[in-house]
Structure formats: structure tokens, C-alpha cells
Specification:
With 410 residues, the chain is α/β, with parallel strands linked by helices. It has helices at 3-7, 14-17, 43-46, 55-66, 79-93, 109-124, 141-146, 150-153, 172-180, 208-221, 273-276, 292-301, 309-331, 351-363, 388-409, and strands at residues 22-26, 29-32, 37-40, 101-104, 129-132, 163-166, 191-194, 197-198, 204-205, 224-228, 252-255, 268-271, 336-340, 343-347, 366-367, 369-371, 377-380. The structure holds pyridoxal-5'-phosphate.
């Protein structure tokens, strides 16, 4: 029996799906203790957009440590933090004319969502947040109230209050009419909270018109528009933000996962100054809200957005992925493909089937995860930096696994 089976909490999940011990990793490959290599189509659920052990980031981090750069600093001012903030301003915010301020909090996604909901409630004096069906926003109680999945909600132990769920892609006209009707019983919310592409929820892509309608409704109601970019930001969709081409201006943008560049934790909210002024100093703290190694690697990651090279590569790899999957889709009309950029969902219609495919892929050397209702969607989120050969080899494994599992089921 391994130490994991013997001593790790029953909560362990991915260790059961991928039952080997990984010892090293580089770009889109992970290697286990037996020396077997796996192509990584999971990328830490969107953390490793720039690959495992990105050489440029690793070098910058080692240099920083060799100089005895400050590693822990709460939210004190450090050279690494100043550099990251300046780079983020110059490369991401200024070109988009975004006046947003950067708020750092505990370094995981759920921390970012908690802070966003708290601020929207504080600024509006309202309680209710509207989230959406199939949305995923984290595991702490506030964020969990916004997460739609029943399995996760069921573990809360207390009622999950002050968040309601509308269908993702709902009729905005109908929703607006309900809010405008003074006798509908609906109170205007503090915020609308959504993912532009629902990642854990099954790779569901919001339409531009729907997003614009929702943004307009939020504005009309004096509610904040909070966009959760935690899994699909940082270049995943072929542009830095998943909403770059959607014509919306979110009030708060929640970032985590890939923002730290190399895989060390960090979370950050981009907050419009009109909302940010409602915070008082130190009102929302967190011991680990100054992740200096993540600032160093995260600043280095921003150089990928100074030219169009990586985003052009993402467009090419997206085209190639869709092209190679097309014959599989043609051969079975029950399969559905969804996504934007390099987050692609292959809906195989059934959670057990998806689990069998995940298992088969893993045996053949591909790490891929499932998501969506009942886990019926295979989610392809390789590092954006994946070499084309690895992408093709991984797709080959996936296609063969899908075919063999589907044939066995027939
Ligand atoms: C969209 C989204 N929001 C929030 C979270 C929660 O992030 P964390 O697990 O780092 O708390 C996730 C995690 O998968 C996510 O995908």
C-alpha cells in the first residue's frame, strides 16, 4: 500500500485517476517514477499555460533566489511586486485602457471569488449575487454558494445562501423584465458572476450578444459584473482575456491559476476604481497575498503577450486540434465539440464512458480530465506552449481511446 493510500485523506481525487507517482515534468510532458512519460492535456486545470518548468521563468526565479530576493512579504512593497505590477500595467491594462486596480489576496481562485463577492456586496449594500447554472467558482463557502455542482454543494455542511442561479445563456430580455417589474419579488443583485467559458461546467461558451445583454442589465441595475477568468484567462482562448473580443467591460475580473506563470500560487482581482474605493485598508487580508516567486515568474510570463507569437501559435494549434478531431466527430454524430482557443471540450454524452476514456488515455500516456454534468465532457487544456508533435501524439492517443471505448460499448 502506498503512503497515499495509507495516510492521505479520503478526499484525494486526481491521485486515484492517475495512480502513479510523478517525479519530473517539462513543458507538456510529465514523467513518473518508473520513467514513463505522459503528454499533459490537463496542465494543472489551467495553471500551466506556459508549460511545466518554463525555462525563462525558472531562470528568473533562480536568479531572484540567488540574490536573496524577499520571498514572503504579506502585502508589503517589494521589488518583485513592483516589477510585476508595472509589467501587468504596461502589457495588459494600458493597451486596453483599463483603469482597474490590482488586489492581491490568498493565492487560490476561490480567494479571488470571495473577495470579489464581498466587495460587490459591500459597495452596493445588497446581498444577492446572481451566478449561472454549470458555473464553478471554488470551494470556500461564499464561492461554493456560486458553484452550481450538487456534489460540491452537498459537502458544505451549512445552507449556501445569498446566491441564486439563472440558466447560463438565459433569456436576458425576460430576466430584465422581471427585474423591471416592481412586483416580481426580485431584488436587484449586488453582482452577476460568470465565466465566459465555463470550464469545469463542461466547456460551455457564452455568446457575445448574451454577454453584452448581461453587461447592460448589470449596469442598469447598478450591479457589478464579475468575470471569473481563473481557468480561461492568461491566453487560454487565444487572447489574454477570454472576453477580449466580447465588447464588455467587467467591473471585477478574478484571476488565479496561470497568473503566477510557472505554477506557483497567486490570485489577483482587477477591480474598477469606482468599486475599489469601497475597500478600507486591510479590510480583506490573507497571509499569502504577496507571493514573490509568483510575481517573478508571472512578470516573465507577460513577455508572451508583448508580441503575437504565442497567440498566433494558439490559433494554429486550435485549428490543428479541431482538424484532427473532425474525422472522429464525423464517424459518430453523438459526439460534440465545444470551446474557444485551447480549451476544447469533447462531449461523449455519458460520464462512465468519459471515465473509461480518461483511464484508457492514461494507460497509453496521456493525461486528460473530464468535466461537465456527470463528468461527460473530456476537457483538452494542454499548455499553450505544447510542441506540435506532442499535441498530435496526444490527440492520436485520445482519438484511439475514444474509438476503442465507443466500439466496446456498441
Ligand atoms: C473558473 C474557476 N473559478 C474558480 C476556481 C477555484 O480555484 P481554486 O481551486 O484555485 O480555488 C476554479 C478552479 O478550477 C475555476 O475553474
Amino acid at each position: 500500500m502506498s503512503i497515499f493510500e495509507e495516510r492521505e485523506s479520503n478526499i484525494r481525487a486526481y491521485g486515484r485517476v492517475y495512480p502513479v507517482v510523478f517525479s519530473s515534468a517539462k513543458n507538456a510532458r510529465q514523467i513518473d517514477e518508473q520513467g514513463k512519460e505522459y503528454i499533459d492535456f490537463f496542465a494543472g486545470a489551467g495553471v500551466l499555460n506556459f508549460g511545466h518548468n518554463n525555462s525563462r521563468m525558472k531562470k528568473a526565479m533562480i536568479e531572484y533566489m540567488e540574490k536573496d530576493g524577499v520571498l514572503h512579504s504579506l502585502d508589503m512593497q517589494t521589488t518583485a511586486k513592483a516589477h510585476f505590477m508595472q509589467r501587468f500595467t504596461d502589457v495588459i491594462l494600458a493597451p486596453r485602457k483599463m483603469p482597474h486596480r490590482m488586489q492581491f489576496m490568498g493565492p487560490t481562485g476561490t480567494n479571488a471569488v470571495e473577495a470579489a463577492m464581498k466587495l460587490a456586496r459591500r459597495a452596493t449594500g445588497r446581498h444577492e449575487v446572481v451566478a449561472f447554472s454549470h458555473g464553478f467558482h471554488g470551494m470556500t463557502l461564499g464561492a461554493l454558494a456560486a458553484t452550481a455542482n450538487q456534489y460540491f454543494r452537498g459537502a458544505s455542511g451549512v445552507p449556501l445562501l445569498h446566491v441564486s442561479h439563472e440558466p447560463f445563456g438565459c433569456d436576458i430580455g425576460g430576466l430584465a423584465a422581471r427585474y423591471r417589474d416592481p412586483s416580481s419579488g426580485l431584488e436587484p443583485p449586488a453582482a452577476f458572476l460568470l465565466e465566459v467559458i465555463q470550464a469545469e461546467g463542461g466547456v460551455n461558451v457564452a455568446g457575445k450578444e448574451w454577454l453584452q445583454g448581461l453587461a447592460a442589465l448589470a449596469k442598469e441595475l447598478g450591479a457589478a459584473l464579475i468575470v471569473d477568468e481563473i481557468q480561461v484567462g492568461c491566453g487560454r482562448t487565444g487572447s489574454y482575456f477570454s472576453f477580449d473580443d466580447m465588447g464588455i467591460e467587467p467591473d471585477i475580473i478574478c484571476m488565479a491559476k496561470g497568473i503566477g506563470g510557472i505554477g506557483t500560487p497567486m490570485a489577483m482581482n482587477l477591480v474598477h476604481p469606482d468599486l475599489d474605493k469601497h475597500w478600507s485598508p486591510g479590510e480583506h487580508t490573507g497571509t499569502f497575498r504577496g507571493q514573490n516567486l509568483s510575481f517573478v515568474a508571472g512578470a516573465e510570463a507577460l513577455s508572451y503577450f508583448e508580441s503575437s507569437e504565442l497567440m498566433d501559435e494558439v490559433a494554429d494549434k486550435t485549428r490543428l486540434t479541431r482538424q484532427l478531431l473532425q474525422p472522429l466527430l464525423n464517424s459518430d454524430s453523438s459526439l460534440q465539440l465545444r470551446g474557444k482557443g485551447l480549451i476544447i471540450g469533447l462531449d461523449v454524452g455519458d460520464g462512465e464512458r468519459a471515465a473509461a476514456i480518461v483511464k484508457r488515455c492514461f494507460e497509453d500516456g496521456l493525461i486528460i480530465a473530464s468535466c461537465g454534468s456527470g463528468g461527460r465532457v473530456l476537457k483538452l487544456i494542454p499548455p499553450l506552449t505544447i510542441p506540435e508533435d506532442d499535441l498530435v501524439e496526444g490527440l492520436d492517443i485520445l482519438i484511439n481511446s475514444v474509438r476503442s471505448v465507443m466500439e466496446e460499448a456498441a
